[in-house]
Amino acid sequence: MKISSHSLVLLLVLGALPLSARETIQLGGATGQAWTESGELTFIDSDTRAGSIGPFKTELTENLIATMRSRGGDIDTIVDNYTIPQDWSDGGYEWIIDGDSTTAFVHPPRIQILGGGGGYWTVPMFFDLGAPFLVSRIRWTTRSDHPENQMRRYILYLNDGTEAAKDRVGNIVWTKYREEIDNLESIVDLEIKPQMVRHIYIRPGGVGTNNGLSTTWEVAEMQVFGQGFVPGAEFTSDPLDLGAPSTLGQIQWGSHQDAGGQIIIQTRTGIDDQPYVYWRVTGVGDELSPIDDQGRPLTLSAYERLKPNQRGGITDDLADWSPWQTYDLEKGLMGTQILSPSPRSFIQIRVQFFSDALAGGRVDSLHFEYSQPPVVTSAVGEIFPTQVEASVLTDFTYAVRARIEPGQSGFDALRLRSNALIDTITDVRIDRGAVAYDVDRDSLGMLIRFQRIVQDQSLLEVDFGARVFRYGTPFDGALVDTESDEVPLLVNAGDAIAETLSDELTVRTGLKGAILPDLTVSPNPFSPNDDGFNDQVTLSSAVLRLTGDTPVDLQIFDLSGRLIRTLSQVVSGSASFAMEWDGQDEAGILAPPGLYVFRLAVDTDTGSHTRLGQVALVY
Predict the structure, then answer these.
(1) Which of 163, 391, 515, 534 could form a disulfide with 609 if both were Cys (CB 3.0 to 4.6 A apart)?
(2) CATH superfamily of 60-226
(3) Where in the chain is the domain with CATH 2.60.40.4070?
(4) What is the mean pLDDT of the chain?
(5) Going edge to edge, which strands form the sheet with 537-543?
(6) CATH topology classification for 5-56+233-275+317-371
(7) DSSP string across 158-226
(8) Closest to 600 (Cα-Cα) out of 471, 511, 514, 506
(9) Over the stretch 43-88, which tens digit does the pLDDT of each residue have?
C-alpha cells in the first residue's frame, strides 16, 4: 500500500507542524497508526497487547487447531496443486474444529474414482496451523457414544512450513512421523518429539493395494498442542510516502526483549514507492527480465499472475533504494539517528523477531522524525588521519562539502559525535580561511557553531584532538541550521578534499597480539550505593606471554576524557588477576551516574598492551 502525502497527515501523532519544521510519524502504541494497517505481518501477534507486535506464542493448554484461522491457517490453505476431496472441503470438517465433542466428521468406507486413473480410498485431512510452532502433542477423538468408529489405520505426516520443506514448484514435502496399522483406541493421543510443525496431514488407511478402511471412521475433535514462540516473525511496513525529499532525524521505539530472544529493527529509504524488482523468466535460455511481455515494468500483482514456472524471483531495488540499515536495540529506546540516506521521499521500516522456544520479545511503538525541505541537498565528508595509535591524543581534521541549491537555508553548525574521546576544537576554517566559532557539548555530542554557509560546495574544515580506543571508530557529522527546527542532515563519507586520499569517516587503530584475553567486566552496570549488592565493578582477565612481575594499571575516564581514578596491581608472570573500582574518584567522592571509559594497561618488555571499554555507573 502506498501512503499518499494527503493521507500522511492522518498519521502525524504529535500534530501537524508547519512546513520546514519537524514532523513525526508513529506506528503502534496508543496513538499511532495500527501495525496491521501499516504493512505486511508474518507470524506477528498484534492482538494480545493493544498497540504492540511480537511473535506468535502458544501455551501447552492452547489447542492450535482451534486458533489456526486467527493466524491465516485453515484446511484449505495447502498448495493449490493438491486436490482436496469434496467430502473434506464441502464444510463437513467444521465438526472437527467446533469444540463440540458430540459432533463429528463421519466417513464411511468407500473408494472415489477420479478420472479413471486411480482414486481416493478415503478422505485425507490437511491442517495449516498458520505458523510454525514447537509441537509436542497431537490428539483426535471419536464421539463418546461411538467409540467403535476409531480410525483403525492411518499415517501421520508433518511439515514445518519453511521454503526448504517444499519442492521446486512449491509443493509441500511431507515427512512421515507415524504409521499405525491396527489402532483400537477411540482417543488417539500422540506425544510428539518436540519439533517445529506448521502443516499436518493425516492419511486414513495404509500403504499398498488393499489399504482401504473396511469400517466407518470419524473424528469428533482434532487438537494440537505445543509451547513457546514461533522461531521467526517479521513486520515490514509499506513504503511510507513523506510527500517530498525529507531530512530524516531520530528514530525511537519502545520494546522488550527476553534473554535468548532477538529483535532487529531496520530502515531503508528510496525515491519511489517500489522497493523491489520483480523478475520474469523469458524462456530464452536463463534470461530474466523485469519487464512483462507488453513492455511494462513488472509489479507485484503482475508477478503473482505469472505461472509458477515463469516467476524469476524478487530482489531489492538497489538502484532507487538504499540497503537495509540495522540499529542497536538499546540505543533506540532513547532515540537514535536514522542511518539510511536522506533527503529521500520514501522510507520503509522492518522489525524482525528471532525467538527460541521460551524467549521472544515485543515492540510497543515506533516513531521517527523528519523535516522538509532539507537544509542542504547532500553533504560529503572525510577525516584524516585514518590510522592512529590507540588511546594516544591525536590531531584530526574533519572536512565537509555540501550541495546547496537555491531556496535552501544552508547551515551554521556541525554536530560531531563519536565514541572516541574528543578533547578540544582547535580551529575552524571555511574555504581555507579561519573563522570564529563556539562549542557546546551535550548528550548528542559536540555542536560547533560558525558563520552561516550558503554557498554551494564551500569547504568546511574543523581541527580537533581526540583519543581513539577502538579499531574502526566512526566520527559521525550532521549539518545543523540552529535558527530553525529542521532535522540536521547527516554527512556521508566521500571526497571532500581532492588532495586527501581518506574519503572515510572512520578511524582505525593498530592490531596487536592479545596480552589480555577474555577480559570480563562485571557487573556492568554497577550501583555503588552501599546496599551490599553490585557495589563495585570487577575487571578480571588472564595475563599471557609474561615471565616476570608485571605492573597492571587501570585508568577510569569520564566521557569528556577527564581522568577520574587510577588503580595499580602487580601480576607475577602469566596469571589471572582482578581489579575492582568502587565508583569513587581519587578524592574519595562518589562519581555521578553515567558511562565511563576504562583503560587497562600491562607494561611489558615489548611495550604497553591495553584493553579499552566502557562501564556504566547507576544509582
Answers:
(1) 515
(2) Galactose-binding domain-like (2.60.120.260)
(3) 520-617
(4) 86
(5) 520-522, 537-543, 575-581
(6) Jelly Rolls (2.60.120)
(7) EE---GGGB-TTS-B--EEEEEES----SEEEEEEEEEEEEEEEEEES-SSSS---SS-EEESEEEEEE
(8) 514
(9) 999 999 999 999 999 999 999 999 999 999 988 766 454 555 555 6
Across 551-571, average pLDDT: 87
C-alpha cell, 232: 521467526
Average pLDDT over residues 509-514: 57
d(CA 305, CA 278): 12
pLDDT band at 256 (very low <50, low <70, confident <90, very high): very high
Q: Tell me the C-alpha distance between 54 and 35, whole Å.
A: 11
The pLDDT of residue 324 is above 80: yes
Omega prior to 525 cis, within 30 of 0: yes
CA distance 430 to 553: 43
CATH pick for 520-617 out of 3.50.50.60, 1.10.357.10, 3.40.50.2000, 2.60.40.4070: 2.60.40.4070
C-alpha cell at 429: 576554517
Q: Is 290 exposed, middle or buried (0-12, 13-18, 19+ CB in 10 A)?
A: middle
The answer to whether residue 500 scores a pLDDT higher than 90 is: no
Amino acid 510: pLDDT: 64
- 3/253 Cα distance (integer angstroms): 21
Say which residue, 214 or 574, is predicted with more confidence: 214
pTM, 2 dp = 0.72
CATH topology of domain 378-507: Immunoglobulin-like (2.60.40)
Q: What backbone phi and psi angles, to 5 degrees, belong to 329?
A: -60, -40
Share of the chain above pLDDT 90, in %: 60
